[in-house]
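Workshop exercise sheet. Pairs work together: one partner reads the sequence aloud, the other fills in the structure field after running the prediction. Swap roles for the next sheet.
Pair: D.N. / O.F.
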Amino acid sequence: LVVSTNTPLSGEIYLYDVIGGRELRLTRDAGIDTAPCWSPGGDQIAFTSDRSGSPQIYLMSADGTILRRFTYQGQYNESAAWSPDGGRIAFMSRIEGVFQLVIHELQTGKETVITTGRGNKENPRWAGDGKHLVFSGNLDGRYSIYSIRIDGTGLRRLTQTMAAITPDWSPAQPR
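Structure field:
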């Protein structure tokens, strides 16, 4: 289990052994480290940190070593989500004052912005098929959950009656 915690001065990421009750602090920085996300193979963790002065995505090995900055484009990047095959990371990036969804191909380094227009698009999560994302967005002024294909087509509003902000797919969903 990996979690982020808030202390009076910063947030840090810890690895917790649920069975043994032990904890291992993975990050040590004056900046805020938050929103950890496991790679599908369990060997890496993506997370958000403002250690460079603005929120960016970083990667580290599962034991907290081999830390490196992942995002360099944009001044505010957050909410990393690994694709089921481990080959891509989706995240939100503030572009012209609005959060848009970006997909980064790990093998090539290519980044594609898959959303446009007004309203923030936040908290992307991959479908098990690796072809769709869900996210929260305020495209019409109220936060709802949407799905979209990874090529940016097929935008569909999923929630209608209530404000919704933190989507995720069921792990039992077929891959």
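Discussion prompt: The CA atoms of residues 127 and 149 lie 10 Å apart. What would you look at next?
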